[in-house]
Amino acid sequence: MLLFVLGQLNLPDIVVSILLVVTMIPFFSVTARRLHDTNRSGWFQLVSWFMPVGTIVALFWFNEPERD
User: Fold this and answer.
1) pLDDT tens-digit map of 6-61
2) What is the C-alpha to C-alpha distance for residues 31 and 61, in angstroms, rounded to an integer?
3) 59, 50 in Cβ contact below 8 A?
4) What is the pTM assigned to this prediction?
5) 27 contacts 34 by C-beta, under 8 angstroms
6) What is the CA radius of gyration of the chain?
7) Which residues touch 23 (CB under 8 Å, ≥6 apart)?
């Protein structure tokens, strides 16, 4: 959704790049936190970059209940 809106605004490329980086940092932080809640390393979020199997595996991991 954000990419669609940014595309419609015709902003300069540097502004779009800055906005994307600003939104990616919290996304990676929340993802790492969720993986740590399931006793996995935050580096496991790299698995989701291998489409489509990695994304499916990552979705199962993110939806697991928290472990003690």
Assistant:
1) 778 888 888 888 888 898 899 899 989 988 888 888 888 888 778 788 888 888 88
2) 10
3) no
4) 0.63
5) no
6) 15
7) 2
DSSP string, 1-68: -HHHHHHHHT--HHHHHHHHHHHHHHHHHHHHHHHHHTT--GGGGGGGGSTTHHHHHHHHHHTSPP--
Tokens coding 29: 């932080």
Instruction: Identify whether the C-beta of residue 46 lies closer than 8 Å to the C-beta of residue 17.
Output: no
**Cis amide leading into 52 (omega within 30):** yes
Contact in structure between 55 and 61 (CB atoms under 8 Å): no
Which residues touch 8 (CB under 8 Å, ≥6 apart)? none
Question: Do residues 53 and 61 make contact, with C-beta atoms less than 8 angstroms apart?
Answer: no
